[in-house]
Specification:
By secondary structure, the chain is of the alpha/beta class. The protein has four helices and seven strands; from the N terminus they run E-H-E-E-H-H-E-H-E-E-E. Strand 6 and strand 7 (88-91) form a beta hairpin. The longest helix has 13 residues, at 8-20. The protein is globular. The chain starts with a strand and ends in a 6-residue tail after the last strand.
Length: 97
């Protein structure tokens, strides 16, 4: 199964899949980043006098940590084209999955 986008919806979908059907699926997550940024907390972060690295580590969580112990392949890329009749996703750089 391929999930495009590691925002809240993508992460929750993957967690639900593994929660309801553990071990039944392997999942590939495609996102332009290798982390999820907790955007609702950005305002609080920029309004404090904190080092940028500390702010980032508090707001961003690596997908590898979120899905630790689960069969999730993380591909850092962006979709270019979906070929529905061949069940393919073509990523930037023309990689096919």
């Amino acid at each position: 199964m391929v999930v495009v986008g590691g925002g809240f919806a993508g992460v929750v979908l993957i967690k639900e899949i593994f929660g309801r059907s553990p071990g039944r699926f392997s999942v590939t997550l495609v996102d332009k980043n290798d982390y999820q940024l907790f955007k609702p907390a950005l305002y609080a972060a920029v309004s404090t006098r904190t080092e940028p690295s500390a702010v980032f580590s508090a707001l961003a969580m690596k997908f590898a940590d979120i899905f630790k112990g689960q069969s999730v392949e993380i591909i850092k890329s962006e979709p270019k084209e979906i070929v529905f009749d061949k069940d393919k996703l073509i990523l930037k750089g023309n990689k096919e999955i």
